Amino acid sequence: MAGLKEVRDLLALRGRLETQQISQLLATPLPRIEALLSHLERMKLAVRVSPASDDACFPGSCRRCPQRKSCLSEQWTLLS
């Protein structure tokens, strides 16, 4: 099972990740990852990245997007 350090290190290596991706990469249940991310957020080490701040997604472009609105999912990153 992954802990705070593993989640933080993974975010440091990959930059931005979705909760589901973190769960799969660390082979840890999703509820545990959500709890660890919430804890990192309270410690001001990680932050949720909202879809509106994602530079890669432009309004109206999801119709042509091969991932079909995958940019609308919540991602996490470390605070600088």
From TrEMBL:
Q: Which Gene3D superfamilies match?
A: Winged helix-like DNA-binding domain superfamily/Winged helix DNA-binding domain
What residue ranges are annotated as transmembrane?
A: none
| Pfam families reported for this sequence | FeoC
On the tree of life, the source organism's domain of life is Bacteria
Q: Which InterPro entries match?
A: Tscrpt_reg_HTH_FeoC, WH-like_DNA-bd_sf, WH_DNA-bd_sf
The segment(s) forming the Transcriptional regulator HTH-type FeoC domain are: 4-69
> What's the name of the protein?
Ferrous iron transporter C
Organism listed in the record: Tenebrionibacter intestinalis
